[in-house]
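QA checklist item 7 of 12: single-chain prediction sanity check.
[x] sequence parsed
[x] length recorded as 295
[x] structure emitted
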Amino acid sequence: AAILGVQLTGGEQLSEAIASGEATLSNKRVLRVDCDRTRQSIEAFQSDKGKARLARLLSFFCKCQATPYRQGLNEVVAPLLMLGADGAEECAEGSLTELSDSAVHRLLQGMVTTFLPAAYGADDDFVGLQCSLEYVRLLLVFHDPELARILQQHSVTPELFATPWLFTLLARGHSLPIVYSLWDSLVLHLATPRLPAAGSPAAAAPSAASTTAGAATEAGAGVGAATVAAPPMPHSGVHVGPGLLHFLCVAMLVRRRRAIQDLVLESASAGAGAALARDIQAAELSVLVSRLSLS
């Protein structure tokens, strides 16, 4: 929360506003359907009370953003509601966190603003999302050109497999302990000091002012901290450049390289692209998470 610049305490009036009822949305029915099928393996989300709280938080967030509800946002809110669970077993049994609605709302704002502006911003044409998908494609071409060629040959584009990853911050279809490990990596990456590019003026002699501004940005400031304009970080918007989220998407593909190749050999018939995309979406992240924790 501190890295994202989110304050979890206070906010009683905000919690009251959220609890006052669901906002009127043009696609409220879609929101309700998504709430009914969110994390149904967890008891807390099977209850009417849990579904109602999820729906209120989603509709209030969309109202604040002045945007319609977009599918996938429910998968981002659900792990935030379970932050009080301790360990895989408790996550599976499930009881909603004791965090207030205002705290969950602020965390959601921080996560979306920092990592998902392309998915849930005011961009009705999804130009930002298209940029993110192109980042995934280009990164794969750079890191594994042969795998990129195989996917392109069978018409398996990033739109087919990476869109759910980018819309849900890798949460969809994966257990909460794995989601939390990935999110920890994404958030901690914000606070990791970065070396300036070789040959840049900053690399030669960073000034005290630039160091201070950079530190404020790294700490996820942007929330009223530094008065000196600092260069935007890759996490603050997809137009700046690829961030860790895009690299994680590519890492999942590379990790499943052999399985993808085997599947291509088995199903080279017409229409196999969609089936291959579903298989990539089902990739387990356990090995990836363990490697991240060791790096």
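[x] summary fact logged: Residues 42 and 74 are 14 Å apart (CA to CA).
[ ] second reviewer sign-off
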